[in-house]
Amino acid sequence: MGSLTKNEYDKMVKKASPNSKIVKDCIFAFLIGGAICAVGQIILDFIKSFGFSKEFSSNFTSMAMIFLGSFLTAFTVYDKIAEYGKAGTLVPITGFANSIVSAAMEFKSEGFVLGLGAKMFTVAGPVLVFGAIFSVVCGILYYVCKMIW
Predict the structure, then answer these.
(1) Neighbour tally for 2: CB within 10 Å
(2) Cβ contacts of 72 within 8 Å, gap of 6 or more
(3) What is the pLDDT, as a whole number, of residue 123?
(4) Measured between alpha carbons, how far apart are the two ends of the chain, in Å?
(5) Percentage of the residues of the chain whose pLDDT score is greater than 70
(6) SS (H, E, C) the chain
(7) pTM reported for the whole predicted model
(8) In angstroms, rounded to a whole number, what is the distance separating the alpha carbons of residues 91 and 81?
(9) Is the pLDDT higher at 38 or at 96?
């Protein structure tokens, strides 16, 4: 068994490696992410058309998008969308809902409290803690900057 030269090894790696589909993946991520955002905008415009305030309409839209992300995850539709949309499905609200629900669903056999309930916070917990700590740090920085200037 002889040793391979660098060129021979490179040829073998190139032959065995799948072709990159990065351009196609980026286009699909853009389209799917845009479609998710468009759905949110449609819901927002629809609610505002009934004369509700901007604040109420925004809150309702957030809740609707969380519900849709969770609902589609529960019926494995969101995973099928993510196969094509990849990073485009990580749009903040629906992506976060998906990550929480999928983590909970994975452990539903362990029961509602120790399975579903506890595992939902394996993803949400660190995000919420980081958000709370970061908001305190930003508040302190804002306070210090306001005192200086």
Answers:
(1) 5
(2) 78, 81, 98
(3) 66
(4) 74
(5) 86
(6) CCCCCHHHHHHHHHHHCCCCCHHHHHHHHHHHHHHHHHHHHHHHHHHHCCCCCHHHHHHHHHHHHHHHHHHHHHCCHHHHHHHHHHHHHHCHHHHHHHHHHHHHHHCHHHCHHHHHHHHHHHHHHHHHHHHHHHHHHHHHHHHHHHHHC
(7) 0.68
(8) 13
(9) 38
